Amino acid sequence: xxxxxxxxxxxxxxxxxxxxxxxxxxxxxxxxxxxxxxxxxxxxxxxxxxxxxxxxxxxxxxxxxxxxxxxxxxxxxxxxxxxxxxxxxxxxxxxxxxxxxxxxxxxxxxxxxxxxxxxxxxxxxxxxxxxxxxxxxxxxxxxxxxxxxxxxxxxxxxxxxxxxxxxxxxxxxxxxxxxxxxxxxxxxxxxxxxxxxxxxxxxxxxxxxxxxxxxxxxxxxxxxxxxxxxxxxxxxxxxxxxxxxxx
Length: 247
Hints:
Helices cover 49% and strands 17% of the residues. The chain has 247 residues and is α+β, with helices and mostly antiparallel strands.
């Protein structure tokens, strides 16, 4: 594990993400060796005892805890409804503290709409807590240029490191086609990280289908996403946002 983590760190150290990957790897080592956690069965029994005598509540609690146990074992969960997607994004960012990092790729969700405007506000508030945010927007002719430009400029002015990539310049490239879904990595206290990634990339999402996320804390999947973000940041297809881009 340690050699693998050092190799990853050397690979993307030029992007300034060495600390991020290194701490994720250290967290993974700790998780592999930790043996002081209570068993899930023990926790399940304790929780069920809170509803003892009410068969409905006992079954309800048991189903919830068993689903949680499944998610913990698999290292991921999936949002089930459109309105649960912004809830998970909010949960992720509201858990950040001073010194935490956020890395994201975005195609232009409806940032100022009813569903995602609270997430926009939470991004701006996170800056005030000392959270470092880098967000890469992948734009095309189909993007809502005026509204998206306003959002990018607002984030840029607030202190988010905003970069822009052109979709038509990325399409067809192997790195992009294999990993094109939008995503966000929340990196907490140099110990843990959570990745939220689109189930269906926004450019491919058909009208009427829900916008869902896969949420994972599997360090291997997180490392893969950091590779992709590193490629976007260091390729000529991505450039720092400048207001002139929107004119």
